[in-house]
Amino acid sequence: xxxxxxxxxxxxxxxxxSLVELGVVGRALKKxxxxxxxxxxxxxxxxxxxxxxxxxxxxxxxxxxLAEPLVRCVKAIREARGDSAPLVFLxxxxxxxxxxxxxxxxxxxxxxxxxxxxxxxVDQRFIDEYVEQTYCLGDFVLSGGELAVACFVDAWVRxxxxxxxxxxxxxxxxxxxxxxxxPHYTRPEVFENKAVPDVLLSGNHAKIESWRFEQAKVYTxxxxxxLLGNPDSDSNNQTGKAGKKV
Length: 246
Fold this sequence. Notes:
Its EC number is 2.1.1.228. The protein has six helices and ten strands. By secondary structure, it is of the alpha/beta class. The chain has two domains: 5-157, SPOUT methyltransferase, trefoil knot domain (Alpha/beta knot, 3-Layer(aba) Sandwich); 174-237, Orthogonal Bundle (Trp Operon Repressor, Chain A), CATH 1.10.1270.20. The strands form three sheets. The chain has a five-stranded parallel beta sheet. The chain has a three-stranded mixed beta sheet with strand order 3-4-7. A two-stranded antiparallel ribbon has the order 9-10. Strand 9 and strand 10 (194-195) form a beta hairpin. Helix 2 (67-81) packs parallel to helix 4.
């Protein structure tokens, strides 16, 4: 079965691919394990200036992306694809995007049409009629949707067969079992007077697996207790040692 196809609607079709051409995802693209196509809605305008936005009704700052060029663009994509892949919009109005959502997308296999928003927003009539799924990366604002869409593609592609070097890598990631990943160590065995835990040097794989699972629970309780179903927890108040929110 061919890999998923991603059709990205973006005002920066020449620059977007660079966001996903690094590391394992970039190698997967070169190996044609997935297909990436970028579409510029300006190509679906009629005026000489290729206008894609206009002032918002009711006044206020910023500009709003026009519905009509987006509709024409989506119709052209659907004709090219020949399938019913969902049109996904990364927006603050959507639910938080989680690993379980990414895996559900990956399991269906076909790919998606991905809209990169810009300016003050997108004409709501287009969203109401054409957008099928919305998600949010978090409670912060980006200048455009390209970075968010690149994150979406990256998270999806790394779940595909033959993308990661080890078949178990994706299944042992954070969130896959409802927990954060356990801590990891590498050489040297002692660094700044801190030694690698003895169990990791034991060669006893059953004990190592058990230790990693217990440490995953400890780290989850420390940094993201809400993942364990604690209704009184608030991950926004959890800070790392360096004072950064996690």
